Structures are given as structure tokens and as C-alpha cells.
Amino acid sequence: MNLKVTDIKQYIYCPRIIYFLYICPVSKKTTYKMESGKVEHMVLDKLEERRTLKRYRLAEGERVFHTYLESERIGLQGKLDMHIVVDKQYYPVEYKFTERSASLNHKYQLVSYAMLLEDYYRCTVRNGLLYLVPKNEIIPVEITPNAREFVYEIIDKIRQIIRSERVPERQRKVNKCRDCEYRRFCGDIDIWTKERVDKCIF
Fold it and tell me: What's the average model confidence in pLDDT over 135-159?
């Protein structure tokens, strides 16, 4: 079974999300933020079609939108927002609708797509681009051998969670929990686990 590229992003945000996605699926509400993100993606696609590549610091090239990528060898699949083709060089581009800076999970989501593009085109991708839309900022990301290796390590860790069916520790940064769509389910698990431990002790 191939994992999704978004699983890489989610694992880095908090490993416990993988538990909710694969072991104990929960029906979560579609948030305003998610709906808004879909609309913003569509609007941005239309704008991108008319723009030059100047913001990406490229003189010319072809934009390709929403390519579905899959690799049995890597064990991943996903749909990339956009990639730019210049001669035989390929640049994956991920849109991010955040007012904050690019984070580690965004970076490795992009690296994962770069690895899938490499399989798709049988090439080496050296750079990817994160487009922070609200700030109109492009963040270049170097696709290094170490970054690729880190993605493989995460894939292994995700598969371990799925195989063992054990609840991973939650993210320790409380501010991440505040924005998490699984927050209330996560709290239930902590209470349930604590009660089981208490019963075992007494």
C-alpha cells in the first residue's frame, strides 16, 4: 500500500494524526479553513495561468497543474499543486496559504513530491519551491540526498505505527494542538489511556 504525500506532512506535524488516519479513523468536520483553501487554490490556478514566471526567478518554462504522481518504489502517491518544466529541469511547486513562515512539514512535503517527480520523469530534481500565497513569497528548497533519506525514514515510522496499531505520543508543542482538527479526539485518547493505566495500578 502506498502512503500519501500528505501523510509525510501530517507525521511531522504530529505522529498521532497517522493513528487517526489509518488505525482509528474519525469523521472530522470540514472547517472553514479547509473550504477556504479549496477556493483559494482554484483562484490561484487561474491567476498562475496568466502570470509570467518572474516570481519564481525563471525566465521561461511550462507550468503543469495538479499532476497525480505515484511510485511503488518509494511507496508514495499524491497530487502536486504545480510543477514547472524548463528544458529538462523540473521544479515542484507547493502552494501554502499561511501567514506564518514555511515549516518543516511543508518542506518535506515538497521533498516528497520532488522524489515522485524524479520517478515520473526519470530525472534528478535539485530544487523545489514553496509559494507562501498570502505573503506572495517564494521559498526555494534544495532537494538534498539527506532530505530524501529523511523522507524514507518517515515512511518507515509511519508504517511502524500502522503495523503496531499503537497510539504514538502527541506533539509536544501546544500551539500546534490548538490548530489541529483532531484535537478533541486526541484528548479522548489521553483520558482513555490514563484510565486504563490507573485501573492496572489499583
Answer: 97
